[in-house]
Prior knowledge:
Blueprint: H1 2-9, H2 16-23, H3 27-33, H4 37-62, H5 66-73, H6 76-82, H7 88-100, H8 102-115
Helix pairs in contact: 4-8, 7-8
Amino acid sequence: MKLKMFIANGYDNTSINDITNACNITKGAFYHHFKSKDEIFIQAIEVIMEEIKKWTDEKNLSSKNMKELIQNSFDYFTYSKYYDNINSDTYLVLIDSIKKIPNLKQRCLTIFSAIFH
């Protein structure tokens, strides 16, 4: 839910009020679990990064050779059949937010490093 709001409205146009209303919780409940909008956004992005890692790991295991691995890695159609959280808008929100949330860039680099090692 929370990620879909960020994707639909953009990071800047998604408020804590929007999140609490959509989740039917109070602001107090929100702040009990999250320090800020940045924190909930980062957690949502980490879920996406883990999906990407899982998909990449599956491609690595199912590929017989390097050529097949490269071809499989660019087969985004199969990705979209298994994971519905990722689309081009997801990447746009991620790229935009990296500029606004300094520690998000490092977290993304850490996860992507794990994917390609």
